[in-house]
Structure formats: C-alpha cells, structure tokens
Amino acid sequence: MHWDDELEKRILREMERRRQEEKPLHDRINQLEAALCDAQLKIRHLWEEKRECLERAQAVALGGVFPGSELRALKKTLEEAWLELVLVASPQAEALSQIIRLLERYFPDQNPR
Description:
This protein is an all-alpha fold. It is 86% helix and 0% strand. It contains 3 helices and no strands. It has helices at residues 2-65, 68-87, 92-104. Helix 2 runs antiparallel to helix 3 (92-104). The longest helix is centred in the N-terminal third of the chain and has 64 residues, at 2-65.
C-alpha cells in the first residue's frame, strides 16, 4: 500500500501545482468578464443617449419646418383622420395612431389622447 500513498501524494502535489499555475489565468478571466460587462452596460447607455439625441434633433428639425401652431394644426388634422379611420374600422388606423403618438412627443405640455 505504500506505493499507493506515494502515488496519491504525487497526484495531489501535481493538482496543487496546476491550480497555482492556473490561478492567475482564472483571475485574469474574471477581470476580463467584469470589464466586458462594464463595456456592455456603457454601450447600452450610449445607444440610449444616441436615441435621445436623434429624437431631440428630429424635434428641432420638425420645429424648424412646422412652427408650433402649424404643428398643432397638423396633429389635429391627423387625429380627425384617425377618428374617421376608426369609425370605418380601417386597419390603417393603428399606423396613423402610431404617427400621432410620435408627434405627441413634441407636445410635452399636452396630455396624450
């Protein structure tokens, strides 16, 4: 049985040596995984910022083309058209409703319909 004990000790020493050898690699993997998570969060945040900037740019552009009173008149006309589409059960009513909802973003002082 002596040779079994010696073999077991050698195996345990080898396993410990490998564990020590691989520890820096595992630590580095953990660091890289954490950095990857941070980068993914930052990318999501930047995409959200980009979307918000595009919406603001669209609002500025729309305000330059349609002054406030004209934009309100446009919205009113679209709402009337939407109501007519709803009354005739047109499938286009939903698409127009989405357009009106987008337009309502430029009227933060008004309650959405």
